Amino acid sequence: MPADPLQMQSVVRAALRGARRRGDAEVRARRLTLLTEATVAVQTARCPGELAEAAAQGAARLAGAPAVVFVVGPDGGLHRGTSSDRGTLGLPDAAAHESVARLVSRLATGHGGPRGVVAPATVWPAGFFRPGLREAARLVPAVTPGRRTPVCVAVPAAAPGVDDGLLSRLAQVTALAAEPLLMYQVERHVALTLQHSFLPRPHRPPRLSGVDLVVRYVPASRETEIGGDFYAAVSTGTGVLTAVGDVVGHSLEAATVMVEIRHALRAYCVEDPDPAVLAARLDRMLQHYHPDVTATVCLALLDPAGGRLRVANAGHLPPLVVSGTGRAAYVDVDGPLLGLGLERPAPAELVLGPDDRLLMVTDGLIETRGTDLGVSLERLRTAAADAPPGLDALCDLLLTRFGHDQEDDIAMLALRLG
Predict the structure, then answer these.
(1) pLDDT tens digit sequence for 260-316
(2) For residue 353, which phi and psi values (nearest 5 degrees)?
(3) Residues 411, 317: contact at Cβ < 8 Å?
(4) Per-residue pLDDT at 99 exceeds 90
């Protein structure tokens, strides 16, 4: 019996519809996978710039076209990320970025859903997608509660098959991930300002009668959390007091406590500059005002008249004495951290010779992940013993040898009898 043509057509159409549905489902599944991968990359970003770059890469894969992602900070600053197929050559100038920042802020504030908005080529600056080319842009803003961090994904308006819903979800993920990063950036700026405003300027160390003094302070990279490293050098009635220390932790609180310790140290040494007394008083101060905070500090009191040196240590790296004969040895002194209320051993006493140099550093100079601290201390001792004469030469050699790509701030203080 011959087949009915109409029935055959109906079967073919049904097969085609099924194939299209399977193809659409596969495309949808692939796009959802790309969105998941982009979400992971966005949520592991360490700074706003890295966040925008990760989002732009994800948007380009979702759209199959060049993409740009804009994140507007609380101060109106614009963080931009471009997909790798765009590159960074020939990007629009600062004026274009400012106009985009205003446009993104207005769009994110007034937009009511996940659908994209087309910005005509006459409005959208040339060069964001392709160098020097003026073209319309499809803008998909984040739609998040409160809209405190405007975020916008931009792709060429002519790009085929753009899924506004998926790009909107990527923009929302980016906005939610951006807020803590931007808040941390603000906190870090405040902490750095606080920390650096209260530290003596390294290129202008205090003038102290009877001693020559050199200090160095090297902040860690911008991506690293703020620390509580500090140093101090003051004249007292019985000699010159020097201190190097570090508040445990990385935060605005660490920087704040660092400032309090420095002020307390200067105030306490007016009454009694003995390092053992100062360590005990700082310990009690932390227990009383900051019971959840600990700190390390090494304190040294030098009598310039005879070179007598008295050293107390609270959980810090011991000072290093570099002799004029090319030998270097750590002062045998230790003790518990500040803030624990534990009994403290007696300070160490020695005599500093006319050609001896005393070096005090924070662990940011030598501490490296995966390397035992004892090994790092020996490397520092060996390098210091080989250093040429002079305080500047000693500090510069050690910074050159150890101070690259460190994850913590570096404070260094070197002195000798003047």
Answers:
(1) 888 898 889 888 999 999 999 999 999 999 988 899 999 999 999 889 999 999 999
(2) -75, 165
(3) no
(4) no
The model's pLDDT over 315-329, given as tens digits with 9 standing for 90+, comes to 999 999 998 787 999
Q: pTM above 0.85? A: no
C-beta separation of 161 from 62 below 8 A = no
Task: Order the strands of the 228-236 sheet from edge to edge.
Answer: 228-236, 239-247, 295-303, 308-314, 348-351
The answer to whether 338 and 294 have CB atoms below 8 angstroms apart is yes
Within a 10 A sphere around the Cβ of 408, how many other Cβ atoms? 20
Of 143 and 99, the one with more pLDDT: 99
Cβ neighbours of residue 361 closer than 8 Å, sequence gap 6 or more: 244, 317, 320, 380, 398, 410, 411, 412, 413
What per-residue confidence (pLDDT) applies to 287?
Answer: 92
Residue 224 confidence class, pLDDT cut points 50, 70, 90: very low
Chain-centroid distance of CA 366 in Å reads 18
Average pLDDT, the chain: 78
What pLDDT sits at residue 68? 84
Q: Which pLDDT does position 160 carry in this prediction? A: 78
In contact, 265 and 275? CB cutoff 8 Å: no
| Mean pLDDT along residues 350-378 | 87
Cα(91)–Cα(114) distance, rounded to whole angstroms?
A: 27
Please tell me the predicted confidence (pLDDT) of residue 24: 54
> What would the mean pLDDT of 20-33 be, rounded to a whole number?
62
